Amino acid sequence: MSLQNKALSLRVEGWRGISHSYALVNQFQLLAFQKHGLARVQHVDMPFIMAHWGAGQNSAGFTEADQSLLADQSTPVMAQAVYRIFAPLELVAHASLPTLTFVVTEFGLDTDRHPDGFADAYASRGGRIHTPSQWSKQRLLANGVPESIIHVVPHAADEQYFFPMDAQGIALNRQNLGLDEDDVVLLNVGTHHWNKGLDVLLKSFAVARQHNKRLKLVLKDQRSTYLMNSESYVHQILNDIGMSDADLMPSIRLISGHLNLAQLNCLYNAADAYVTPYRAEGFNLPALEAQSCGTPVVATRGGATDDFLTGERYHPIDGVLMENAVLKEHLTLNAYVEPSADQLTALLSQLSRKKAMTQVQPRLSWADVCRQLLAIY
Fold this sequence. Notes:
Rossmann fold, 2 domains, 6-stranded parallel beta sheet, 14 strands, globular
């Protein structure tokens, strides 16, 4: 079915109001649909997979104006198509409407829940899949999803929220964080799930700081979203390598509490590098947001960020591709990349203060993303 309407009537089933990757992508897309008149949207709120997300402690952090726009999208419309962006994954085509489902995977789908052929019925009814990276697409293909229904449409970084600040603004942010002028600040705002590689970062940081005493590491505590105690995790990793000494711990800062998007922008700008030695990512939105702030990014080469990290402010970490590996939890993975800790350590040892910049190269906008999504129908 071809839908040529200039402003499509679209039923979106997803999450709003929280700071989770699916919800953030959904909300940025909802704002773009409305602000640019791309679609008439009826949003249907789907159940959260963690009960505490609805307790008001994990706000998405948008401005009041944007929050009002997001809240004003529940009026029923005569839908011409359906877009689904929530978890757990359900590939079920609507009985009569074209259906597009957001599917992203870091290292492959659980074969117990999604055996070979699980997507065939969805494909036969015209269902299509939106995934944000070539890496995620390859993992879906390895899980037996038909290539004909997979459409790669990347994410974006909203320039209203993520932009380079001037040198004075950066200095003020660093001062508010208790950082000295000559500190070389590394930032990571991800969780300590195994695929994120925070253990690799902590170990490399500990060794690199023996050579570069100005290094400081800033991490975002993830208790509000995932109920994870990041402080305990940091101590555990450093204890494992015998480096939890009194000199090292003061150089690691944990940002506790919830941050809104304006505060996150300040954090990206205050950093001299965003460091993400991930093993597997479906996209890695923070890396894109950091780069949109003019902050250099240190990231694993060979994964999802290959799609968008380029230029002189990108410092790649080589890695070894691991396919069909089995973890200690006995979960079979179809692929991940093990980053080189030695190369990361050497790179961190040589890092210096970044040069402030007030402009970055124009990037794909969320409106561009939404136009690509609508074109799939």
